[in-house]
Task: inverse folding
């Protein structure tokens, strides 16, 4: 497998949130490796409120992990 | 992407809760970028009890992250 | 918005559980601000076992946050 | 409300698991205070695999909280 | 109730995973004490992908608890 | 049972993510030991968006555990 996750460290909370999204997408990609099938599923679930909420929940769980890994970017607090 | 999450630090628990809501909404927005589609979904899921509960769960998960990032606003405890 | 969450600190675990319920309700209220719609949904979901279990799950997640904020009321342990 | 949660402290992990069940039941009771309705729902959800699994998930989340409150009963480890 | 959970301590991560499964099963057993009903449900949910995934989620949550209780078996790291 | 989980320690976050997938799969395998049935279920759930999202959620929960076990690979941070 190609390298896609060298570190959980990000510079800002926002980049951390984007990493949480990447982690969520990667989980789907590994479970369903066919890009063709994933592309067919996308228009359907992205127009279904409950599916969208479920995706958001996975992102929230992954963001917990990334945020903890970055000590919640607390070192950035003083600079602000 | 525009800057929308400079920090997880908030002054009060209530502002933290509002940030948790923002995080939850942002997850939906990034998964379904079309504002038109999101607007069409809103009246439906916001009148569906199970969808509402699911949204509330995502907020609860994000609030865990924000609360931990703020050390649960414990420093505010003594002032109160 | 009115102030409704001045602190996560509670005197007892039971009050913490009640705060977890408040947090769960607030999530719903903010997502569906119309009291009229919420009142119409209530009789339905409160008689549906799966909806009730889902609500209980949100309470459980929020209770994790409140309990951590109060250091699990461990200081109360010795007094008991 | 009557006192039902004086502490999260339990003597053993098993008692902690039982407390996690109590917390889960209490969440349902507070959301649906009518004992009559709850009694009618019970035979249905307790014979539905997906409902049972959902209940078990709430118990698992509450057990995380109780276990953390008891420092995972680590002090019991040496005695064993 | 008979003693079934003397400790959360296990020798290896794998035994910890097995304990997480036990915890998940116990949650179901306590919610539905009738072995007869549980046996009838089993063939159905164990052939339903979504039910299986839901079971796996409960195991994952319980494994978090068991892993934390064992400090993630970090003491085993050096020996390896 | 054969040994499949000697440690939660991995060299990189990516290997940790792969371990989280293994943990998720193992949960399914233990709940449904028949490889025949699992193989029949796979084409169906892997083409169902909601099932895929649910699998991704289990992976996310397990990744939280693995990441914590590795102290979020923070020791790797300086080398980068």
Result:
């Amino acid at each position: 497998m190609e390298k896609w996750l060298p570190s959980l460290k990000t510079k800002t909370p926002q980049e951390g949130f984007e990493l949480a999204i990447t982690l969520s997408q990667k989980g789907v990609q590994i479970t369903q490796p066919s890009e063709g099938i994933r592309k067919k599923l996308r228009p359907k679930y992205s127009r279904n409120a409950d599916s969208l909420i479920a995706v958001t929940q996975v992102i929230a769980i992954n963001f917990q992990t990334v945020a903890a890994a970055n000590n919640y970017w607390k070192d950035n607090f003083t600079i602000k």
Notes: Chains F and B do not touch (no CB pair under 8 Å).
